[in-house]
Structures are given as C-alpha cells and as structure tokens.
C-alpha cells in the first residue's frame, strides 16, 4: 500500500483539480534546459535601488523585523503607503485601520477573495487574467465569470456592454487589474467611470490589482478605482513593492480599503502567512518615499526597453500590441504562419533560443487567446537586444 490511499478520491482538492504545474515553471525549466533567454516570467534580471537594498540590510543589523512584525504590518510601512496614496492620487487612508501589509500582492488577492467570496458567489474577472486569480476564486468556492479583452485598434479593449451583461444576481465581486497583465491595457477614465457606476448600481465589491501602477507609458494614466464616486467604501486596492522597485523576491504587498473591508481581509490573511518579510517592510517604507525622479527614471527605462523589444518583434514578423502599461508585450503569431501559442512557445527555445509565455493559459475561452504570446521586457538592454537578434531568425 506504499504511496496509496484507502480512498478512491483524488488527493488534490477538486476545487484545484484544473490547476497543475504553472506555465511559468514549465517555461522556466525549458529556458534552463536549452540555455535560452527567458522572457517568460516577469522578474527583472537586476536588483532595484541600492539605497533600498541597504535599508533592508540596515534593518536586519538593527534587529528591526527579525521577529514577528505586527499583524497589520510595521507602522512605518503603513504610514508610507498612506503618504504614497495621498501624494500620488489624493486618496486619504488611516494607517491604523485602512492598511494591511501582505506577502506580496498574490497573498492580498488570495486573502481578499477568501474573505469576501462564499461558495456560489460569482466573481467577474477580465480575461486574459493572471493565473492566480482563477486559483484563488476556486479556493474561495466562487464561480469565475470571465469578460474578455479583445484586440481593437492596436490594443486589447474592454467591452463595457459585455461587462454589464455578465453581472447577475449572484455576482458578488469584480476583480480588476489595471495596468493589465498580460495585455498591457490601462483602463481609461471613461472606462473606470462606467465600471464605478455599475458597481454602485449593482452593489458590487471590487478588488483592484494595481501592482503596475508606476509603469504606464505614452499618454496612459493610472487612476485608482477607489478615487471614483461611491467606490471608496467598496474597493479593496492592492499594490506591491516587487514590480516598482525590482525586488520581487521580498514579497511585500499591501491592501488599502475601508476599515470594514480591511478587517475582513485581515481575518483571512492572518491564517495564511500571519506575517512576513519583517526587515523588508522597513526598507519598502523608505522606498515609497523616494523622489518622483526615481519613478520617472524607472518608467523611462522601461519605455526604452519596451520599444527595443516591440521593434524587434515587429521586424521578426509578429503583430505587436505595444502595451500602455506593465512590462509585458503581447504578440500575435499568425503572421508567422502559426496559430497555436502553446505549441509555438514549447518549440521557440529550440528554434530561436528565447522563451515566452502562451497567453491562452490565461483564458477560460482558450480559442480567444490561442494565437497570442507574452514577452517580458524587464531585462537588461543587452539581453533584449540579443533576444531580438535571435527572434529575427524566425522570419528568415
């Protein structure tokens, strides 16, 4: 009986049965085994600001955060999050009752959904969606209702009529991501106004994932949904330090919301990690107070990298959707005579020495995402230039 169970039931909880090894693990393993350039997983290949790293070292040496930090997060970080929201967006929060520090945005999303969703509740998410959204909705016992972003005039756009039609009497919550991973779409003021009006009209809760808030390009503008009329009391706003400061391994995220919502989310979060990243919380508190020049330079650097990769992909024969935000580019493989993004990404390392992610895995409607693949450009310039050189061999 070694390795067997006495029950015929599968070992994995049926809510998670559809979720196997993530596509990121598969593609990262392919990158290693083939020696390819990994433009799949979204992590930088250099560390963030030296002064932020040194702030973490200083906290470690000073004994700050080496033991359990306070459940809601260290006071310095909660105060820094409040100051950031006020300075950037004019949103006022109480650091004691309206901020919760989490183990990255991923835990914040999980805790919010576990706290706010009951079995049978419907959760609307924009597809393609980040893969943890689907798993967290499933763990909460909710029903996933995707609303598809579709290509139009060089970008992926939300159909507001489709969103309205998706709301039923069972809809509990809207799960939004803007700037949007993987498409790079940034919801406009007009779109956010319509979403806010819908949420108020139908009395919906909203969870917004805004981790790419500082990465918007061209004429795009990031506007928190919580700043719209009627949304302050029904919106859980989530962000994190990983994407903005290039310390993704620290896993420091946060929630801002009304006291009632924060209390609910904390009730779930305290039984997940309880607390995490003690010394790093102090460092992120300092990072949030960096001058505007840091954010401007960070955005300008990523914009230059976006243009290098986008131009190279276009030269290689892809149809490219230049993102208005995030550090990902979605490309259409059909001009290359391909239609199956999953098969394309599995053979791309051998063909061109580059790894990408097939966007279809982020869709319920797999056919909608079949011809699209996602490339990350949060890499050093010389790495992107070499990737571009390799990818151009596809069109030879």
Structure report:
- With 396 residues, this protein is of the alpha/beta class.
- 40% of the residues lie in helices and 16% in strands.
- The chain is built from 14 helices and 15 strands.
- Strands 2-10-9-8-7-3-4 form a 7-stranded mixed β-sheet, with helices on both faces. Strands 11-12-15-14 form a 4-stranded antiparallel β-sheet.
- Helix 4 (104-116) packs across helix 9.
- The longest helix is centred in the C-terminal third of the chain and has 25 residues, at 292-316.
- The chain is globular and about 60 Å long.
- The mean pLDDT is 96.
Provide the fold topology.
Elements: H1 23-34, E1 37-38, H2 50-62, H3 75-89, E2 99-102, H4 104-116, E3 122-127, H5 131-140, E4 143-148, E5 150-152, E6 155-157, H6 160-166, E7 171-177, H7 189-201, E8 205-209, E9 235-240, H8 242-245, E10 253-256, H9 259-269, H10 278-287, H11 292-316, E11 319-321, E12 328-332, H12 341-352, E13 354-355, E14 357-358, H13 366-369, E15 372-376, H14 381-391
Parallel strand pairs: 1-13, 3-4, 3-7, 7-8, 8-9
Antiparallel strand pairs: 2-10, 5-6, 9-10, 11-12, 12-15, 14-15
Spatial gap, N to C terminus: 56 Å
Estimated helix fraction = 40-55%
Percentage of β-strand residues = 15-25%
The helix tally amounts to 14
Strand order of the largest sheet: 2-10-9-8-7-3-4
Low-confidence stretches: none
* Cα-based radius of gyration, to the nearest Å: 21 Å
Mean pLDDT metric: 96
Order of helices and strands: HEHHEHEHEEEHEHEEHEHHHEEHEEHEH
């Amino acid at each position: 009986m070694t390795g067997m169970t006495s029950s015929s039931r599968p070992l994995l909880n049926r809510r998670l049965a559809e979720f196997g090894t993530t596509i990121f693990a598969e593609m990262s393993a392919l990158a290693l085994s083939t020696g390819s350039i990994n433009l799949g997983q979204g992590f930088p290949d250099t560390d963030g600001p030296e002064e932020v790293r040194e702030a973490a070292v200083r906290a470690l040496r000073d004994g700050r955060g080496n033991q359990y930090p306070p459940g809601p997060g260290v006071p310095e970080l909660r105060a820094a999050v409040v100051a950031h929201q006020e300075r950037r967006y004019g949103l006022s929060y109480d650091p004691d009752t309206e901020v919760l520090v989490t183990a990255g945005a991923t835990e914040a999303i999980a805790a919010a959904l576990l706290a706010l969703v009951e079995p049978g509740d419907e959760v609307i998410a924009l597809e393609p969606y980040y893969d943890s959204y689907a798993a967290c909705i499933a763990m909460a016992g909710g029903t996933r209702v995707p609303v598809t972003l579709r290509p139009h005039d060089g970008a992926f756009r939300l159909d507001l009529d489709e969103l309205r039609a998706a709301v039923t009497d069972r809809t509990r919550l809207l799960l939004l991501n803007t700037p949007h991973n993987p498409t790079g779409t940034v919801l406009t003021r007009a779109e956010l106004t319509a979403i806010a009006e819908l949420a108020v009209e139908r009395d919906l809760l909203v969870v917004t994932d805004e981790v790419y808030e500082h990465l918007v390009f061209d004429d795009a503008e990031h506007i928190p949904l919580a700043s719209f009329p009627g949304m302050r009391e029904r919106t859980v706003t989530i962000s994190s330090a990983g994407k903005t400061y290039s310390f993704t391994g620290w896993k420091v995220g946060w929630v801002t919301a009304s006291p009632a919502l924060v209390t609910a989310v904390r009730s779930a979060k305290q039984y997940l990690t309880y607390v995490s990243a003690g010394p790093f919380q102090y460092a992120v508190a300092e990072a949030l107070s960096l001058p505007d020049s840091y954010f401007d330079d960070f955005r300008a650097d990523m914009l230059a990298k976006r243009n290098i990769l986008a131009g190279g992909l276009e030269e290689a024969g892809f149809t490219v959707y230049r993102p208005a935000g995030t550090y990902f580019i979605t490309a259409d493989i059909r001009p290359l005579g391909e239609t199956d993004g999953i098969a394309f990404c599995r053979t791309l390392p051998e063909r061109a020495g580059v790894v990408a992610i097939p966007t279809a895995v982020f869709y319920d409607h797999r056919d909608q995402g079949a011809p699209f693949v996602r490339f990350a450009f949060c890499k050093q310039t010389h790495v992107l230039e070499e990737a571009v050189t390799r990818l151009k061999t596809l069109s030879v």
